[in-house]
Design brief:
The complex is a heterodimer of chains A (about 900) and B (about 600).
Chain A: E1 5-9, E2 12-16, H1 22-28, E3 54-55, E4 74-76, H2 80-94, H3 100-103, H4 136-143, E5 168-170, H5 180-188, E6 194-197, E7 204-207, H6 223-227, E8 233-235, E9 243-250, E10 259-265, E11 270-275, H7 288-292, E12 307-310, E13 313-316, H8 319-331, E14 339-343, H9 349-362, E15 368-370, H10 377-386, E16 403-407, H11 411-414, H12 416-427, E17 431-435, H13 441-445, E18 448-450, H14 457-470, H15 476-482, E19 483-484, H16 486-493, H17 498-505, H18 509-521, E20 525-529, H19 536-552, E21 563-565, H20 572-577, E22 584-585, E23 589-590, H21 594-604, H22 616-624, E24 630-634, H23 638-641, H24 646-650, E25 657-662, E26 674-677, E27 686-689, E28 694-698, H25 711-721, H26 732-742, H27 751-756, E29 760-761, E30 786-787, E31 805-813, E32 822-826, E33 829-833, E34 837-840, H28 842-847, E35 855-860, E36 864-871, E37 878-884, H29 885-894, H30 900-903, E38 909-916
Parallel strand pairs in A: 1-4, 14-15, 14-24, 16-17, 16-20, 17-18, 19-30, 20-21, 24-25, 25-26, 31-37, 34-36
Antiparallel strand pairs in A: 1-2, 3-4, 5-8, 6-7, 9-10, 10-11, 12-13, 12-26, 22-23, 27-28, 28-29, 31-38, 32-33, 35-36, 35-38
Helix pairs in contact in A: 8-25, 9-25, 9-26, 10-19, 14-17, 14-18, 14-19
Chain B: H1 4-20, E1 25-29, H2 40-54, E2 59-63, E3 75-79, E4 83-87, H3 95-104, E5 113-117, H4 134-137, H5 155-160, H6 165-173, H7 176-186, H8 198-203, E6 213-218, H9 227-234, H10 236-250, E7 254-259, H11 264-279, E8 295-300, H12 310-317, E9 341-345, H13 346-358, H14 360-365, E10 367-368, E11 371-372, E12 374-381, E13 387-392, H15 397-404, E14 414-419, E15 426-428, H16 438-443, E16 452-457, H17 462-476, H18 482-499, H19 507-521, H20 525-528, H21 532-540, H22 542-551, H23 585-593
Parallel strand pairs in B: 1-2, 6-7, 6-9, 7-8, 12-16
Antiparallel strand pairs in B: 1-3, 3-4, 4-5, 10-11, 12-13, 14-15, 14-16
The chains are: A alpha/beta (about 900), B alpha/beta (about 600).
Chain lengths: ~900, ~600
């Protein structure tokens, strides 16, 4: 690290970092230099020339956004020449930008709700600009204290508005061609969906292919909107609304946990979510879910009061009645394992802590779980082998990785912002290896895409590790000094013969060798695994092997290396940390660890039931068998709504009692015996923990429009009704304080600290600790040797087609430049219209007597499609189809459901049958 | 792999066969600019037709440009054991007679004869010498030494005429730093416009990691300049050898010649020449048996003038929209794809072979003051002998125009000069005493720039010419930085207003204000110099402006013609101009309200 240097701006000495531009240094020091085209995170551009300064010894007027600081530099930001120059440029700019908002003499007089008295032509009125009063251009003009008389002729561009694409509106008459949107899209998002069009005075922004965002590979992340300084690009929903307050909170859609600034209008509605540019989690970025998928909190269909079913119909009741009804009902199921509590991953750590406590102390069962915990193996073995039940490295460490291995994870959709550092690093030359049957955006940018037969991933990764060990490319020193059981692991690998692996996985031996050599040679190497398509029978082996690979190559505890379990739910990590899982107590205390459980009981003041509860996957079976009679569902769970746990949902009629806490009516509330109205993330206070172990605080942004309550307060009252002690909580902070008494790594975290920082990464076990970015750093005093796990080779059951049975891999990408499509306008919205293809192995095609271009009908549990056959090199027994993201975005946009993201199905592997169409 | 000596022996033998053999050698100037435009295609096919019809044995070659555009199409006939004579304006209908007289009757007809060239044994008494022509005599052709003489498709002809001696000497005798030293002491300055010492530029590249890039800039979008493209079209080998030398000096591994798209002559010639150089081992791995390797390719631009700006050029090479980058970082530190890069103009690189062949002292003895070597001038407009002339630095502009160019034709008076491209501004007839010298021209408020000189006679209106120049600047602005994008657009609007006699009070002041914003505010030279045309025209031709702005008349009458209609390049600016008074925004709003 090089030392800070000192520069002088307008006579004030300030500190600057080497390599920083003058503008950045000035901003850090709180000195304002006007700018329009500069945008944090993008490369220096220097187009608007608004940030010009004078530097002693430098000719002319350099732009401060492109001039790096040098020691003892003397900068002046307000000489007459500079001020005049800025005004001159602004004059020019206003010759083509509507500026009624600056010049109308009624500005001072007009109240916020007044009718415009038409002193300005229609196009130029302040009320016809969606960014009126939140426009950077206007702020800059005012700061420049300009004389609002200009001799230049004003000309409106008269470009028609674009309003047919999903989610956003584009008014190029308001564009100042600063290029922020183009650069954000290209440099930060890696999409290049936007570009400059035309030249000279006609230069303008447009889509890089075609005329619609659907054609240009847009991922609808909204980064361009966030970057736009004027009203040219805006969110369509609540376009004209102004915020009266802005509250920082955390996005409830995925475990990346983006910090969002929630804008609330005067009618107390959430009108916009803007990713926080200062946040260390998302660095000003978010995705289509966070940006356009949070309006559900304003829905008129929100449940407002508790409801009890009587005579087959839900009736609104008061809280007291609801609580005593609930207490009376569940009293029957106490201490007999017939009760199961299923918590939404959108619930806070506090809710999770109270839920597990309720289950264990009130209901006397370990039947508590978080509904997204369908793949518990992801973190289970991290705990067993590395010591902590969570990912090892921070998200933005990925910028420094030389190689990535992404295993069965649709990152750009499920963990969007975590894919950004990968996309950027790949652009800068890092290698990306993807193992996935589905074609996703990750496979498109991958240098190697391995598409093995379903459920052979463990064998594939094992054979990669075998090559590394056989060719002595492993990190001997790391293995010898920092690990245990490497001999057993080596021994178990003997059976992973590369030819055998080729046969089992369908991946050519050469590809396996090539992959192994890249992984071993280009370090640091980061592994990201979601195992979204991997069956539970092989998932454990797969995770163990992934960990073995990372350990054997010495990528644990290093920056840019490490393991990233890509969990499903937004706060799944936090819910697990808080103990809302059937086999572990808060802080991952195993039920079989008698001394620790006793210790826990002593501190908690209640006894812990000793048998573990059922896993999420076992619940449906238990209901079916009549062993489980009461289900208590807390919160809106994507996995219960999008078909992932369809098996469970289908059995609920067999239950004796179903209690649901929900914010919106859904399939479960329509069958529940009691429904509690629930707060959403925008109304509640609490904490989330993301996949990099970062605990962040959610602040209530809007007030409740009904009698909604957080689940912890409901559960506490029910407990009191049942005369169970230990539930005297009145604020979420009290719960958090209780939680951190039990969960060691949270000990040093407090609400007070969280409000100051952009989250704290656990372990943070003492008051002064700033948290831990990277786990298992070998030079840390508390480092314990990490353990290899031997994995015997198992041949998965044959997936090759029998009786016309196939596995369909659903894919989705942003752009398929080789294929054209038609853009049709439907209900004033652009839609993609094209014939989808079904990729198929030549042998399969032969056996079904199909050739390229034939039509085929495909049917499965949830799908029925007519597709055109495309014979290619996919695995036998596997077929796949890839749609465009634009189609998906269009569906989300036009969906009538209040929370489309909750219901939208993830890409998966589906058993299907095929039938040629005559 | 061949050594230089082997190549030279082979080349000499081939050359001797052409020049000293028994078969006549006919060379026709086929360059894109004037050759093809004046009918060289028809001429060459007539020649070929006639030769095959009569069975006369002769070698016919398509060569580049001798620079005497006024005499195109040019036919150069070498008759064995007799002489080599150059004929001008040989249109297709003159071919039969000319071939018959030269090759059948053994005569040297005086009709259309420009002159004979000394081939050592002159058997043509009383005939004019080609080299004694005023157009040729005042020249000192270094970069253009082979243009029009060799077939640009045959690398051996280039080698036979001394090609690759410079590179051979560099590789065999000199270390890279010696090459840089040699170029430094030759005083060679960049011919692209900024006149930065080429050797110094190369020395910036000695630091930095490989791969390093050397780029050759042949964007040359200036109207009235065809110098760079002519070099590549007539003798691409000079530029290629120059680049190879530059690469050796700077330790570069890769080179890219960047040519404006659509100019097929130079593009084809360069691509073919690169292919040949690879095939004989003058490019690629271990050039001429040394440890030095260098790869070269051609890259094309879109239609963009600003792509000639060095950082915009790098963007274009990377396949992006050609908009200038902010500096620092400078190309030598962070160039194409982030690698160290040097960018030189075709002309600058084309001097390198001769400098390395003859030495720095020889080069610096040519020229004047700090401007050594020659200036390549592309002379056009209202001039008797338009052409491409390479003259020693230090000649006055008047000498070039009157002695070489033959002055303004038709008894008209010279009124204006436009030098160094549209951004260079205009000069008046008082400027004829200015010498071709980077510094002297700069002090006089003009630039040598690309080397184009456009001559305008007294029928031209200064305001109208300015309008055309401003329209060019506006249309070619890349649209990146605000002062240039909006400044040129507004300037054009005002100048068009003036040219159509609708000037408003205060327009001149307004233009000056915009011009100043552009000069100090713009990101690259395009915007910084974008006000030059107006500023210089207002300085030198006050009467024209005053008449136009104040009296609403055109002194030359050229703007009053009925067909006169300014091209309005700001398409969205077609709303009627409402008032002649300076517009107050609030007033304008009131107007709309009515």
């Amino acid at each position: 690290m090089s030392e800070d240097l000192v520069i002088n701006i307008d006579g004030k000495e300030i500190k600057a970092k080497p390599g920083q531009m003058i503008l950045q240094a000035a901003m850090d020091a709180g000195i304002y230099i006007p700018y329009l085209c500069y945008y944090p995170g993008t490369k220096p551009f220097g187009a608007c020339r608004m940030c010009v300064v004078s530097v002693d010894g430098v000719r002319g007027t350099p732009a401060s956004c492109t001039t790096p600081v040098t020691p003892d530099m003397i900068v002046k930001t307000d000489t007459t020449e500079i001020v005049e120059l800025r005004r001159g440029i602004m004059d020019l700019l206003l010759s083509e930008h509507p500026h009624g908002c600056l010049t109308c003499h009624r500005i001072e007089l007009c109240g916020p709700t007044d009718v415009c008295l038409r002193h300005v032509s229609v196009n130029d009125r302040c009320v016809t600009c969606p960014k009126n009063e939140r426009c950077e251009l206007k702020d800059t003009v005012r700061w420049l204290e300009m004389d609002m008389e200009t001799p230049l002729t004003y000309q409106n561009r008269q470009i028609p508005l674009k309003t047919a694409d999903p989610f956003w509106d584009m008014d190029m008459n308001l564009c100042i061609v600063c290029g922020r949107c183009v650069r954000v899209c290209d440099e930060i998002r890696g999409d290049s969906a936007l570009t400059f069009l035309n030249r000279a005075g006609k230069t303008i922004i447009g889509t890089s292919e075609g005329t619609s965002l659907l054609e240009s590979g847009c991922e609808f992340c909204g980064a361009c909107i966030d970057a736009c300084p004027t009203g040219a690009l805006v969110e369509r929903d609540y376009k004209w609304d102004k915020a009266i307050k802005t509250i920082e909170s955390v996005c409830p859609h995925c475990p990346v946990g983006c910090t969002m600034k929630l804008e609330i209008n005067k009618r107390d509605k959430l009108i916009r979510a803007i990713p926080d540019s200062q946040s260390e989690v998302n660095r000003g970025q978010s995705c289509y879910k966070g940006k356009f998928g949070v309006n559900f909190v304003n829905s008129k269909q929100r449940i407002k009061t508790p409801m009890i079913r009587s005579k087959g119909e839900l009736k609104e009741v008061g809280w007291n009645e609801a609580i005593s009804f609930m207490a009376e009902k569940i009293n029957t199921y106490r201490n007999n394992k017939e009760y199961y509590l299923l918590l939404s991953p959108r619930s806070t750590n506090e809710e999770a802590f109270v839920a597990q406590k309720f289950g264990r102390s009130v209901m006397g069962t370990n039947n508590v779980n978080v509904s997204s915990n369908t793949r518990p193996e992801l973190v289970e073995y991290l705990g067993q082998m590395l010591g902590s039940y969570a990912g090892t490295n921070p998200i933005w460490d990925l910028e420094k990785s030389q190689t990535f291995l992404v295993i069965s994870a649709n990152m750009t959709e499920q963990h969007n912002v975590a894919s950004l550092p990968i996309k950027q690093a790949v652009k800068n030359g890092s290698e990306l290896i993807v193992i996935d049957q589905r074609e996703t955006e990750m496979t498109k940018i991958a240098s190697i895409w391995l598409r093995p037969k379903p459920n052979t991933e463990a064998v594939l990764i094992g054979s990669i590790l075998k090559v590394i060990i056989d060719e002595t490319l492993d990190d001997h020193n790391f293995i010898n000094e920092n690990t245990l059981h490497s001999d057993q692991m080596r021994k178990s690998l003997v059976s992973y013969d590369i030819i055998k692996a080729e046969n089992i996985t369908g991946i050519p031996a050469d590809e396996i060798r090539k992959t192994a050599r890249i992984i071993a040679r280009s370090k640091p190497f980061a592994t990201l695994y979601g195992l979204e398509t991997v069956d539970s029978t092989v998932r454990a082996d797969c995770v163990k092997m992934i960990l073995n690979l990372s350990m054997a190559t010495g990528n644990i505890g290093v920056e840019g290396g490490g393991l990233y379990p890509l969990l499903n739910g937004a706060n799944e990590q936090g819910a697990k940390d808080a103990g809302c899982i059937p086999d572990k107590l808060p802080g991952y205390v195993g039920l079989d660890d008698i001394s620790k459980v006793a210790e826990f009981e002593k501190m908690a003041g209640y006894t812990i039931p000793k048998t573990p509860g059922w896993s999420v996957e076992e619940v449906a079976g238990a209901i079916e068998a009549g062993e489980l009679k009461a289900l208590h569902v807390i919160g809106d769970s994507p996995s219960l709504m999008n078909g992932e746990l369809a098996g469970l949902v289908n059995t609920i009629d067999k239950l004796e009692f179903l209690a649901v806490h929900a914010s919106l009516e859904n399939e479960l509330t329509s069958r529940a015996d009691i429904v509690f109205p629930m707060e959403t993330f925008a109304e509640t206070e609490g904490t989330y923990t993301n996949i990099e172990r970062r605990v962040q605080i959610l602040n209530p942004a809007m007030s409740k429009k009904g009698y909604q309550a957080s689940s912890w307060s409901v559960l506490s009252q029910v407990a009191k009704e049942l005369n169970v002690g230990g539930f005297d909580y009145s604020t979420s902070m009290q719960i958090f304080d209780d939680l951190r008494r039990h969960v060691g790594p949270y000990k040093g975290i407090s609400y007070e600290k969280l409000r100051k920082e952009s989250g704290i990464q656990w372990p943070c076990s003492y008051k002064e600790s700033k948290g831990t970015a990277i786990l298992c750093e070998v030079d840390q005093p508390d480092f314990k040797k990490i353990k290899f796990a031997p994995v015997e080779l198992k041949t998965p059951k044959d997936s090759i087609n029998k009786n016309g049975e196939f596995i369909l891999a659903e894919g989705r990408v942003l752009l398929q430049s080789g294929r054209t499509f038609e853009l049709v306008e439907n209900n004033k919205r652009n839609e993609i219209s094209r014939e989808e293809l079904l990729e198929m192995h030549p042998m399969d095609a032969k056996s079904l007597n199909l050739k390229d271009g034939d039509l085929v009908e495909l049917e499965g549990d949830t799908v029925k499609l007519k597709l055109k056959v495309h014979v290619n090199g996919i695995q036998e027994g596997l077929v796949s189809t890839t749609e465009l993201f634009g189609s998906y975005a269009g569906r989300l946009d036009s969906s009538s459901a209040p929370d489309p993201v909750l219901n939208s199905k993830n890409l998966s592997l589906i058993p299907v049958t095929l039938k040629p169409v005559e | 792999m061949s050594s230089y000596e082997q190549l030279k022996t082979l080349a000499d033998a081939r050359w001797a066969e052409l020049t000293e053999g028994n078969v006549p050698w006919i060379r026709i100037g086929m360059s894109m600019c004037c050759g093809q435009a004046s009918g060289a295609y028809e001429t060459i096919s007539a020649i070929k037709e006639h030769l095959s019809a009569t069975g006369i044995d002769a070698t016919v070659s398509e060569v580049g440009c001798l620079g005497i555009c006024y005499a195109s199409p040019v036919v150069d006939i070498l008759v064995p054991n007799q002489n080599r004579a150059i004929y001008g304006n040989v249109t297709a209908d003159l071919v039969v007679d000319l071939i018959n007289k030269c090759l059948v009757q053994g005569k040297t007809p005086k009709k259309n004869l420009l002159g004979v060239v000394d081939t050592g044994e002159i058997k043509s008494k009383g005939l004019p010498y080609f080299n004694e022509l005023p157009q040729i005599k005042l020249q000192n052709r270094i970069a253009l030494r082979n243009a029009g003489h060799i077939d640009p498709k045959d690398i051996y002809q280039y080698i036979a005429r001394g090609g690759y001696l410079g590179l051979n000497r560099s590789l065999a005798e000199l270390k890279p730093e010696d090459v840089i030293e040699e170029v430094k002491s030759s005083g060679l300055r960049g011919r692209g416009g900024a006149a930065f010492p080429t050797g110094v530029k190369w020395s910036f590249m000695t630091r930095g990691k490989k791969p390093k890039y050397i780029l050759c800039n042949c964007e040359e979008g200036d109207p009235g300049a065809f110098n760079d493209k002519s070099i590549l079209e007539s003798d691409p080998y000079t530029a290629i050898e120059g680049m190879t030398i530059a690469a050796y000096a700077t330790g570069s591994t890769n080179g890219i010649i960047f040519i404006r798209h659509g100019h097929d002559g130079p593009i084809d010639a360069t691509e073919r020449a690169i292919e040949q150089a690879y095939s004989v081992g003058l490019l690629g791995k271990n050039i001429l048996g040394s440890d030095f390797s260098f790869d070269l390719e051609v890259s094309l631009t879109g239609e963009s003038y600003v792509a000639g700006e060095e950082t915009a050029l790098m963007e274009a090479v990377e396949g992006k929209r050609s908009m200038p980058r902010a500096r620092p970082p400078f190309p030598a530190a962070y160039g194409v794809w982030g690698h160290p890069t040097t960018i030189n103009n075709v002309k600058s690189l084309s001097y390198a072979p001769s400098i390395l062949e003859h030495g720095a002292e020889w080069f610096s003895s040519i020229g004047v003051n700090k401007s050594t070597g020659t200036a390549i001038i592309c002379l056009s407009g209202n001039i008797k002998h338009p052409g491409l002339y390479e003259v020693p630095m230090g000649l006055t502009i008047g000498e070039v125009i009157n002695n070489i160019g033959g002055g303004v034709p038709g008894g008209r008076k010279l009124k204006m000069l436009q030098t160094g491209g549209p951004l260079g501004g205009v000069l008046s007839s008082d400027s004829l005493e200015i010498r071709l010298d980077f510094d002297e021209m700069r002090d006089a408020g003009a630039i040598l720039g690309s080397g184009g000189i456009i001559v305008a006679d007294d029928r031209t209106c200064a305001v109208d010419l300015t309008r055309v120049l401003v329209a060019f600047c506006q249309f070619e602005s890349c649209g990146k930085c605000f002062p240039c994008r909006l400044g040129t657009t507004n300037l054009l609007e005002i100048v068009e207003r003036m040219a159509s006699n609708k000037a408003r009070i205060g327009d001149v002041e307004l233009m000056k204000q915009i011009g100043q914003t552009m000069q100090i505010g713009s990101l690259c030279g395009h915007g910084q110099l974008g006000f030059n045309p107006i500023e210089s025209a207002m300085k030198h031709f006050k009467e024209d402006w005053n008449a136009c702005v104040e009296d609403g008349v055109c002194l030359t009458g050229s703007c009053d013609k009925p067909h006169f209609n300014p091209i309005n390049t700001r398409s969205f600016a077609d709303a009627p101009i409402k008032s002649t008074a300076p517009i107050n925004l609030t007033n304008q709003i009131g107007e709309n309200h009515e």
